[in-house]
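Progress report, Aim 2. The chain analyzed during this reporting quarter is listed below.
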Amino acid sequence: MTNERPPDRRVRRTKQRLDDALESLIIEKGYDKITVQDLIDRADVGRSTFYAHYETKDDLLISWTQLADDMELHMAHEQLDAGSAMPSLTLFRHLGEHHHLYKAMLGGRGIDIVTEMIHSTLLGHATSVLERRPDANDQTTIPIEVRAGFLASSLLALLTWWLDNDRPYPPERMDEIYEELTKTT
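Predicted C-alpha cells for the chain:
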C-alpha cells in the first residue's frame, strides 16, 4: 500500500490556472497558435512551474480530461429509446452550451488529440450500450465493435458539422437527424 497523497492546494491551483488559461486561449486564438509563453503569461505562473508539471502544451491538453468526462457524464444521464444506441440529445445540448470552446477544439480546424479523445469516449459508450442490449447478438450480422465504431464516428462527424455551421438547428432537431440517420444500427 502506498501513501500517495493528493496534490497540495498550490499544485491544484496552478493546474487549474493553466487549464483555465488553455481554455481561454483556445477560444481566443486557436490551439495551434498557442505557445507555452502564452500559457504561462495568461496563468501567471513561471516557466519552471509549467515545466514541473508538463513537458509540452500537448501534455497539458492531454491531461485536460474534463472534456471527455463532461461528455461521459451527460451521456450517462440520458434515457435511450429502444432503438437508440447513442445519447445524442444531451451531447448536442452540452456542446451547444459551450459551442465556442468545442468549435475551437472539434471544428474543421480542431485539435487531433481532442478529436481522438472524444471519439474514444463515444466509442466506449456506444460499445457499452450495444453490449447491454438484450438483443445484442441477435440484432444484426454486423459485429458490435463495427457498429459501435460507426455510431461513434457518425455522431462525431455530425457534432463537428453542427459546430462548423454555427448550429443551424436546435439540439432537439439534431438528435432527430442523428436518430434518423442511424435508425438501422
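Residues 80 and 175 are 12 Å apart (CA to CA). The two ends are 46 Å apart (CA to CA). These observations will guide the mutagenesis work planned for the next reporting period.
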